[in-house]
Amino acid sequence: MAAPVRARPTGVGRTTESPLPAVPGASQEEIRRQNLGAVLRYVHLHGPTSRAELTSQLGLNRSTIGALAADLVASGLVTEGAPASVRRAGRPSLVVSPRSDRVYAHALSIDAARLRAARVGLGGQILDLREIPRPSGTSAIDAVRPLADLVRDMERSVAPDALLVGGAVAATDTTREPDGRIRIAGVDETLGVALEAEFSAGPGFVTGDLADIAALAEQVRGVATGIDDIIYLHGDLGISAGIIVGGRLVIGHRGHSGKVGHMVVNPNGLPCGCGSRGCWETEISEAALLRHAGRDPSDRAAVAEVLRAAADGDRTAGAAVAQVADWLGFGVANLVNVVNPDAVVFGGSLRDIFTAGADVVRERLDTMPLPASREYLRLRAAALGRDAVLIGAAELAFDKLLADPLNVGVVGQMDPVDPI
Amino acid sequence: MAAPVRARPTGVGRTTESPLPAVPGASQEEIRRQNLGAVLRYVHLHGPTSRAELTSQLGLNRSTIGALAADLVASGLVTEGAPASVRRAGRPSLVVSPRSDRVYAHALSIDAARLRAARVGLGGQILDLREIPRPSGTSAIDAVRPLADLVRDMERSVAPDALLVGGAVAATDTTREPDGRIRIAGVDETLGVALEAEFSAGPGFVTGDLADIAALAEQVRGVATGIDDIIYLHGDLGISAGIIVGGRLVIGHRGHSGKVGHMVVNPNGLPCGCGSRGCWETEISEAALLRHAGRDPSDRAAVAEVLRAAADGDRTAGAAVAQVADWLGFGVANLVNVVNPDAVVFGGSLRDIFTAGADVVRERLDTMPLPASREYLRLRAAALGRDAVLIGAAELAFDKLLADPLNVGVVGQMDPVDPI
């Protein structure tokens, strides 16, 4: 299997906005570029911000902020204007705003059932979104052509002066091999290459693991803002995790960290598609919930019905939720002992299961991990929902712009003409 | 429980020796200090090095290296001399050597059974070592006074011009609380404070988790040199891990990461002292090996006998080793799916169990983790043995010196006079 090359975002998720460290002997020009990035990152994350706040938050002096803002305005990345309301006497501090309507990235996602493409503006707003079903049994590479079609379709309505700064694709590729085993291919470098080949011009695509990217999104704009040690659990057909430690994503030696769905939690449990037995996935997936509820395990649409029935007091459905929630808490407890995170975030299909069975999950977490590991633990339902992956992918795509704002401006628009 | 404050070593374990990045607007003086640190770190890690090699390895020019070396010589941190053997014609490049005999750190460790104190010279040599038993039932704080006595005893034979640059203490404090549960206190800040209170002068002590520190040692000077994604497993009375991801230690939100001994691997297993059931420790500890071999589980001295008997073909002992090795592989497989490390290192008592049962461990790892996660995995027995913890603690203690060599030189010797 080819080793995937995955983006290691350097700045995404940083909770401090201070200027980046320079290399030894950094020139004034290099320092200026880094400071431009710090200002742009701040308004990207926090929205319209007064020069006064930028001055105090970034530790730069007033005239420097003024000059940096002017450069960013000239590059078409931000606007400056009077504040909407003026509360204090005296001359108001100008407000610097990201040009979300003009500066944007392409964010793509490939999950078990859907292909999605979005244009996301600087500042994190989704400007346009297209979605189609993913035919079952197809690989991530098979998704390249339909995703490219969605992108081209979106590009047709983009204003002529808009600035495309990059693209990113989030995928978790679970494919069944000829030997019957489920292999998790991670995200192969060929995915990004194949996407780029679809377009004759454009800034290209970085790739990332879907759970990693959703974790970043929740850390940058969701329920885990400002938290540095996070386990984000993503439920789709399988279960995977995005783990952030000390503010940085755990990528793994070859990009395969976070395959927590294949931790064995029940040595006497059911066979798993991966060839092992009693994997966490066999106990907490949607299929497990449906099985316990006496439904067809492959009928994903019935998950919502089971959760609703449980909420309405149906005993079979309630017991099914409790059993899955118990195993959910069991596995989280093990992960908490390993990583000692500040927060565990439940996303994808696990969001609803956590919400429905939170008491049962908490009971496990109140007893299983060591007291020291669980003492400050926060459990949270993901906030960004289905958009997390697209918002996170856009953060990856914006990373280069935010590291060196003026250098990306030359990239220009994606060629809207279809390749041969 | 008080939150422990643990050292986050910034430079320890770095596999690149290039000069540190400077802050924006770094002065020539700051850049010089960082370059001094880069040169000193290089000879600390690699031993005597020619100016020519330093020039090429650090990417600095020849005259800069000459000036930096001269500064370090003047500070008494290194010596310069002709190489031992000259192979090429022409003027030989001077060799820069760390002054291991003069510049040293205090390295202390508190494990389940022993208290150890060492003086470790720049370059990583153990210059002096004292060891006494740790009375059972005592806490880490109870170890402060006897450790301080060992330090004072070692200090009596230190040359007058020697330079003490810092100290570090490694501990894993497993104490049984009044409610009968075993709590893992991590390493409380009070431990370092209490040690400092024992001495009226001196550069102080940083604290760290024993498994974390041993992991660093194996990465800097052991079997995992140059490897950035490592799970180091340490067996003592309990089992814990030092996890290094992307070259940096995983500390955890409150410093309690790596409590892998309390992952539940066998939901139907034996009760654990922590209050849970079927923890990994209950299946892979020395006590488990002794239990399966029909020996007294508390007779730690018998572990070596069981391993020897297994090697000699004794069936009961062999089956005991195989059973423990199987559970060892089981838990490692789960960790590999979570972290996707490049290498797993077996240390402490797990070193011998891994060595004796490597085939059984490998069998689990050949089947349980996902193919992508296990594909490039290396399993290794720890190389540094009992000294790993002391060598790692010294690395923590040297960190400040290596970050700013000339600033630590003023610290001077520890006051050899006992406090009242």
From TrEMBL, chains A, B:
What keywords sit in the KW lines?
Answer: Kinase, Transferase
The record ties this protein, via Gene3D superfamilies, to: 3.30.420.40, Winged helix-like DNA-binding domain superfamily/Winged helix DNA-binding domain (1.10.10.10)
Origin species: Micromonospora chokoriensis
Q: Which residues form the signal peptide?
A: none
Its Gene Ontology molecular function terms?
A: kinase activity
* The organism's place on the tree of life at top rank: Bacteria
What name appears for this protein in its UniProt entry?
A: Sugar kinase of the NBD/HSP70 family, may contain an N-terminal HTH domain
Q: Say which family it is in.
A: Belongs to the ROK (NagC/XylR) family.
Q: Per the record, which residues fall in region Disordered? A: 1-27
